[in-house]
Structures are given as structure tokens and as C-alpha cells.
Design brief:
This protein is α/β, with parallel strands linked by helices. The protein has eight helices and seven strands. The strands form two sheets. The chain has a five-stranded parallel β-sheet with strand order 3-4-5-6-7, covered by helices on one side. It has a two-stranded antiparallel sheet with strand order 1-2.
Length: 211
């Protein structure tokens, strides 16, 4: 695992970043990108000393970087590291231009994408993602057309999620045809906006033990 940037530009209600942003309010810019020189030095050391064969970029949203930064980073990555890699991102940041840029370097990679739900009202009203099924479909059309290996992250058990919402998620998974589908169960952790929603509506009391 390699962290190129820390923090996320988005504010999903179920994510720890929303809590961390509030906790760090007034302390400067939340999303910070590691200098490329520093990232390359670290990965070169990992590759040489520990014989690393693949890197996973744990940035919350790797393709949120502008094209100019991606080109500079990949120029260095190709020349100095040249190992398969796995970035994770959001569907809204996936464009043909960015994916074609990555493909142009000829290094195998997989793209992990946070999809979460196939119900628009869950995505927008509960998750606060400001994302639609169409954006997800468009993103995976770009990836599948180019035969990119993908991992789609889904989540079930959101507050107010109904049976039909769950099956909308199943249907969306079938439509986008990811190489891997990873499913998690929503957990109302302290500080999340979605946790506050659960407390306000009586789904939990805020007194439950954490372990």
C-alpha cells in the first residue's frame, strides 16, 4: 500500500473523512498530496529492498488529480518504478482522457471504484454522494471498453434502505460487470454524518458498545 495523497475532496456521510474534516476544521488544507520526489524515493526503496511486485495507491480518489499531475507522476513511475499498480477513485473522476493516459504507459493496472448503492435516493439523500447511477454506468463503460480490470465497492445496510434498493444495487452490479465486486455492510461509526442520522431516527442510541 502506498499513500500518494491524504484526505478526500468529497464528503460522503458514511465515510470517516467527513468526521476528520470537521475535527480538523480551521487547521489548513485537508487534502494534501505528497511530493512526487518523495513518493518515488519511497517506492524505489520498497521495490529494491522488499521486492515489491505491485503497488496499491490508497489515495481516497487518485483520479481527482488533474491530468497535468497524472502525466508528471506517470512519467516518473514508468521510468523509476514500472510495476503494476491499483488506484482507487470515484466514478465522477473517470474520463476517457485520464484512462487513456494511464494506458499509454503500458503498465498493467486495476481501477477500484466506490459505487456503494444502485439507488439514487440512497446515494444522494443518505450517502450525500451527489452521484447518479448514470455516472457509474458511464465510468464503467469507459473502463470495460478498454478492458481494464476493475473492483467495484458496494455497501448495504444503509439507514432507510429497502428491499428494492438492495436489488437495485444488485442490478447495477450486473450492468457494470466489474472484474471483482466487494461488498461491505454499513457501520455507524462515531463522527459520521450517517451515524447522526441513525441516532436522530432511533436506529441506534449512541450508547452501543464499540467492541
Amino acid at each position: 500500500d502506498m499513500e500518494i495523497a491524504r484526505g478526500c475532496p468529497y464528503n460522503c456521510a458514511y465515510c470517516g473523512n467527513s468526521a476528520l474534516k470537521e475535527f480538523n476544521r480551521g487547521l489548513g488544507r485537508y487534502v494534501k498530496t505528497r511530493p512526487i520526489d518523495s513518493s518515488m524515493r519511497h517506492m524505489k526503496r520498497m521495490k529494491e529492498e522488499y521486492k515489491i511486485d505491485i503497488f496499491q495507491f490508497t489515495d481516497e480518489c487518485f483520479l481527482a488529480h488533474p491530468v497535468s499531475w497524472l502525466r508528471e507522476f506517470m512519467d516518473r513511475y514508468k521510468a523509476e518504478i514500472n510495476k503494476p499498480y491499483i488506484p482507487q477513485t470515484r466514478s465522477e473522476t473517470i474520463t476517457g482522457e485520464k484512462i487513456d493516459l494511464l494506458l499509454g504507459y503500458g503498465i498493467p493496472f486495476q481501477v477500484s471504484v466506490g459505487v456503494e448503492s444502485g439507488a439514487d435516493h440512497i446515494l444522494n439523500d443518505i450517502c450525500d454522494r451527489r452521484c447518479t447511477q448514470k455516472q457509474v454506468l458511464d465510468a464503467f463503460e469507459i473502463l470495460n471498453k478498454r478492458k481494464i480490470r476493475t473492483n467495484a465497492f458496494f455497501m448495504i445496510g444503509f439507514p432507510f434502505e429497502k428491499r428494492e434498493d438492495f436489488f437495485s444495487t444488485v442490478e447495477l452490479c450486473r450492468k457494470i460487470r466489474p472484474s471483482v465486486a466487494s461488498v461491505a455492510i454499513f457501520q455507524p461509526l462515531p463522527g459520521q454524518k450517517a451515524t447522526k442520522l441513525c441516532i436522530e431516527n432511533g436506529f441506534i442510541t449512541d450508547k452501543e458498545p464499540m467492541a
